[in-house]
Amino acid sequence: MSEKSWFFAFKEEDLAEGSMDIARVKVTPVLPINKSGTIYSLYGKCKHKGCRISKGSFSDEYTLVCAGHAWEYDIRSGEDLGDEDESLEIYENKVEDGEIFVLL
Ligand code: FES
Predict the structure, then answer these.
(1) Burial of residue 29 (number of CB atoms within 10 Å: 0-12, 13-18, 19+)
(2) Superfamily of domain 6-103
(3) Ligand 1 mean position to 51 CA, how many Å?
(4) Is 46 in the pocket of ligand 1 (CB under 6 A)?
(5) pTM value?
(6) 20-64 pLDDT, tens per residue?
């Protein structure tokens, strides 16, 4: 197994409070989300049929609903909140000098 490293994902100034976007880090789609002053970084494609999860919306503070077929995920843990056991990977991240890095 290869060792993880920090990779640049996004500029903090481009991720306003309450927003999310998609970044390709190496070959991995990563979804950085700015929620209540915390940055969360999750895998960027829905585990159901692969829709871009950044097209989804929030049903409450931390529940992200996929625009495809309404699967729900907790952005704090990536946990699938439905009947499936298909959580999104969540990546450790850090902000340095206004840049968001993820550990992959
Ligand atoms: S692709 Fe996300 S719920 Fe179907």
Answers:
(1) middle
(2) Rieske [2Fe-2S] iron-sulphur domain (2.102.10.10)
(3) 6
(4) yes
(5) 0.92
(6) 999 999 999 999 999 998 999 999 999 999 999 999 999 999 999
